[in-house]
Amino acid sequence: LDTASVHCVTQRYTQHYLITLNMSEETNGQENGSVPEVELIIKASTIDGRRKGACLFCQEYFMDLYLLAELKTISLKVTTVDMLKPPPDFRSNFEATPPPILIDNGLAVLENDKIERHIMKNIPGGHNLFVQDKDVAQRTENVYSKFKLMLLKRDDSSKNILLNYLRKINDHLGERGTRFLTGDTMCCFDCELMPKLQHIRVAGKYFADFEIPDELDHLWRYMFHMYQLDAFTQSCPADQDIINHYKQQQGTRMKKHEELETPTFTTSIPASIHA
């Protein structure tokens, strides 16, 4: 994982496959100790126990912090932990608390709303990510619940309801004329919405044959811009992990051949969409 502004080193420690990625080893020519180091513990893949799992909150905070690491206000370490076989040091430190877990200067922040608040108020540069926009909040807040309803019912009615919510987001992007939800730079709303859109795209197709229509061109253009960003691609789980996430919720067992599949990442857009 190498970019112009963020350097990642992968290291495995303990017998239970915790993977760490140290980001921003060097900052503006200075040693890494000149910026605070923040660690984010995220759920590992339920397929191999090592790569990134399909936890929406984990990816959201990964994206938030990755953007700050790119700005070189922090050094970020991301650790995946297999919750099916959590290592002793994880159990002794956090007991049964599931990721995401944020560790900042020795302080562990365990609850999602507290993690968000901590990034906003305590992480250098974090306040810039958390903009206020009631229109964006209203248009995006229910899309995931409608997706979950569609996965449950898998009928035309639930598909149309989800489509209506996606159309609202598409219309908003068209009205704003910006690359992202609130402007031409990413914010907390983008880090929250885009992982959900990826789940809708991948799992919606797999379980309910639902596809985002080409006619939602503003939404597709938005997704195209997100697919170009390291903050999304480095934090995004594989298609197989997204699918297995919902299989587990439905009580479906994974087949042996699925464990052996090479991870794939769906990032294509319709040919009719002009970025």
TrEMBL record:
Pfam families: CLIC-like_N
Start and end residues of each CLIC N-terminal domain: 36-119
Lineage: superkingdom: Eukaryota
Compartmental location: Membrane
CDD domains: GST_C_CLIC, GST_N_CLIC
Main location as per UniProt: membrane
Gene3D superfamilies: 1.20.1050.10, Glutaredoxin
One Gene Ontology term, aspect cellular component: apical plasma membrane
Entry's family note: Belongs to the chloride channel CLIC family.
This protein's name: CLIC N-terminal domain-containing protein
Organism expressing this protein natively: Cherax quadricarinatus (Australian red claw crayfish)
